[in-house]
Amino acid sequence: MRILITAGGTSEKIDSVRSITNHSTGSLGKAIAEALLEKGIEIDYVTTRQAKQPANDSRLTVHSIEGTLGLLNCLESLLSAHTYFAVIHSMAVSDFTPANSWSQEAFLTAINQLLPQFDNQVSPELLETLVAQSMEQSGKLSSNTDHLVMVLKKTPKVIQRIKAKQPQTKLVGFKLLVDVSEETLFQVARDSLAKNQADYVLANDLTTIKEDQHIGHLLTADKKIGTGHTKPEIAALIVDTLLKNEEPLG
Q1: pTM for the whole thing?
Q2: Which Pfam families match (predicted)?
C-alpha cells in the first residue's frame, strides 16, 4: 500500500531573497506520516525545507518543493508514476502568487505610458498588459522606494487535480477557518469537500489550535467521523478511518 501526503506551507517568490508564505509548520502532516509508518505503509511525502519532517525511514520518500507550481509539477509526476491508496493533502497552499512588482515611480510611469492606448481609462485590459510586462528586476527588488506596488495572481487549485488523475484514490482535504461557529466551519468544509471531490475533509479553526491542542473534525459529505483534540489524535483518526476499509473509494 502506498499513500501520498503533502505537508507544510508553500512559499511564493517575490524576488531572489523575498517570498510570500504562510504559518504552516507541517506538524500535523508529520504526525500523520509517523502514524502511517507505524503501520508499515510506504509514503511519498511532499513538503518544504522549512517544514517539520518525520525521521528517516526506508518506507518514506521525501520530495521537497517551494511554490505552488513546484507542488503541482511534483504531484503530477507522482500521480503519473504511482497508484495511491490515499492522498492526504494537508499542505497549506498559497492562493496567490506574485505576477509583477514595481517601485512607486516605475508603476506610475508604466501606467501613464499605457493610458493613451486604453482611452485614458484604467481597465482590466490595461492591468493585464501592465502585468505582462517584464519584471522590474530579475534579482533583488530595490528598497529605495517609499511604496512597492505588487500584483498577485490566483494560483491553480492543486487539490482539484488529484481526483482528475486518480479517481479511485481516497482523498483527504483540509479546511482551516478563523473564529467561526461550528455550523459555519462544517458547512464551508463540506462545500470544499464537494468542490474538490474529496472523500473526507478535516475541518479546524485557528482559534482552537495551540501548542498542546489542535481540535479537528473529520467529516464526510453527510456525517462527522470523529473529533481529535491533539495532532496525534487527529492523525490516528485519519489513519484509522482510511484503513478501516482498505478498498479504494469510487
Answers
A1: 0.89
A2: DFP (PF04127)
Burial of 179 (0-12, 13-18, 19+ CB in 10 A): exposed
Domain coordinates of the chain in residue numbers? 2-95+156-244, 99-154
Q: What's the per-residue H, E or C state across 63-87?
A: EECCCHHHHHHHHHHHHHHCCCCEE
156, 68 contact by CB (below 8 A): yes
pLDDT of residue 44 exceeding 70: yes
Domain 2-95+156-244, classified CATH 3.40.190.10, yes or no: no
190 three-state secondary structure: helix
**What pLDDT was estimated at residue 247?**
52
Percent of the chain with pLDDT over 70: 94
Cα 36 from Cα 5, distance rounded (Å): 10
Annotate 72-130 with DSSP letters as a single string: HHHHHHHHHH---SEEEE--B--SEEEEEEEEHHHHHHHHHHHGGGGTT---HHHHHHH
pLDDT tens column, 152-193: 999 999 999 999 999 999 999 999 999 999 999 999 999 999
Average pLDDT over the chain reads 92
Could you give the CA distance from residue 65 to residue 5 in angstroms, rounded to a whole number? 13
> Residue 135: which pLDDT band, with cuts at 50, 70 and 90?
low
Angle at 55 between CA 50 and CA 60, to 5 degrees: 95
